[in-house]
Amino acid sequence: MIYPAAGKDTDLPARVSIAAEHQLRGRLWPVSPRPQFGQRAVACCRREACVPAAVLQIGGRIRAERAKKGISLRSLARGVGLSPSLISQIETGKCQPSVSTLYAITNVLGISVQDVLGETAAAAEVRHAAGAGRVADGNLALAAAPAAAARAGAAADLAGPVVCPGQRDVLELDLGVVWQRLGQVPGSNVDFLLVTYQPGGCSSPGGRLMRHAGTEYGYLIQGELTLTLGRQSHRLTPGDAVSFPSVTPHAYRNEGTVPSAGVWFVADSGGG
Question: Residues 186-211: what's their mean pLDDT?
């Protein structure tokens, strides 16, 4: 499912812009104007409305990683605790995993969530643009060099350290959860995400607790979110922050009537 661009009316801010992060169900909080520092900031703001976010399809990547590891579909299903048919549906894109199922799959495969998400769309554009001007012998074709250099420069601008709202990769998970990737440093096992839970949304089916590699940090921007951590439950409201080892059994759920959204950071989230 591809969500409408930021700024249009929607109950699910799957691509939350700077202003839309404070705008849910017709409620708009004052937002300071975005500072304009030089040409890069201006270019970033211009692209927000015209560069669509990539809606990630991770089923094929899960299948490819499973094949690379030599793990059968039945073995993966047994390790995750799901039926082979459900794993097959996830791999073929017929359904999306929940947060807990995604982490369980990466645990069994011995990879990180970033391995499944793959490189960002902007990074892929840089790689494509960088190779567009090369010929078979590895030298830049003189006639194509200026145009290729311009494409590579524009793409590198998109893949730089600043990720604007319209450039985020979006992953719609099961049970009313949406992840937006806020950034990626190649070679690092870090999940840096803007996470949205719809009313009634949760990280695990049936309220089951999950555990995975890494250290988890979260900051709630809007809405309410209930964190079950071990045997205790914590009600998070805007401005609350959490941090804990991700191997501690935990689960999230939105028991409120409006979507909740926050920034989550999972360091050393697995893989090699």
Answer: 93
